[in-house]
Amino acid sequence: MSTQKDIVIQETYGERFQYCWGCGPKNEDGIHLHTVPSEDGKSCVCEFVPDKKFTGGVPNNLFGGMIAMAFDCTGTASAAYFAHKNKGLDLTEDTVIGRFITARLEVDFKKPVPIDGTVKITATPEEIGERKVIVNMEMEAAGELRAKARIVAVGVKDNM
């Protein structure tokens, strides 16, 4: 059986929620970002190497919209995980996790994000409520902090 760290949160979404362009495992044209819990369960991590087609106005730097999208997908997946864990539940391959969507996303761009290597987002919970989760995130690339974000995510029902 897989440990929580090995499980991609987006792959535990209910069937109808698996089509996000950024992180949906069932979107054939999507990016397929993966967010996984850390080994201790206190944070979540998303690592990816951007495709060169997502360059911004300056060649070899990631387009700002892609940065925001990566924070959005990582933040909502992390919110789902933190809410799930807060209920005392384990994340398993059979989990159908509650789905969260973005109510607010704030991004602070610190430095350009190079497109030629791994980008890592680390997410930690700020507040976990019954229906709302606030997550703080940091994006690193080439050993430097490149951007920070804060997301307010809300849980939705399956019939949204």
Describe the structure concisely.
The protein has one helix at 64-86, and strands at 35-37, 44-48, 99-109, 119-128, 132-141, 144-156.
Describe what this molecule looks like in 3D.
- The structure is a single chain.
- Helix content is about 15%, strand content about 30%.
- It is of the alpha+beta class.
- It has one domain: Thiol Ester Dehydrase, Chain A (Roll), CATH 3.10.129.
- The model has no long low-confidence stretch (mean pLDDT about 95).
- A 6-stranded antiparallel sheet has the order 1-2-4-5-6-3, covered by helices on one side.
CATH class identity: Alpha Beta
CATH architecture: Roll
Total beta strands: 6
Main sheet: strands, sense, barrel? 6 strands, antiparallel
> How many H/I helices?
1
Order of helices and strands: EEHEEEE
- Structural class of the helices, strands and pairings? alpha+beta
Strand content is 25-35%
What portion of residues is helical?
10-25%
Q: Round the mean pLDDT to the nearest integer and report it.
A: 93
Q: Low-confidence segments, ≥5 residues, pLDDT <50?
A: none
Principal-axis shape: globular
Looking at CATH, the homologous superfamily is Hotdog Thioesterase
Give the CATH topology: Thiol Ester Dehydrase, Chain A
Number of domains: 1
Domain Thioesterase: 60-143
Membrane topology: Peripheral membrane protein
Main location: membrane
Catalytic activity: octanoyl-CoA + H2O = octanoate + CoA + H(+); tetradecanoyl-CoA + H2O = tetradecanoate + CoA + H(+); decanoyl-CoA + H2O = decanoate + CoA + H(+); (5Z,8Z,11Z,14Z)-eicosatetraenoyl-CoA + H2O = (5Z,8Z,11Z,14Z)-eicosatetraenoate + CoA + H(+)
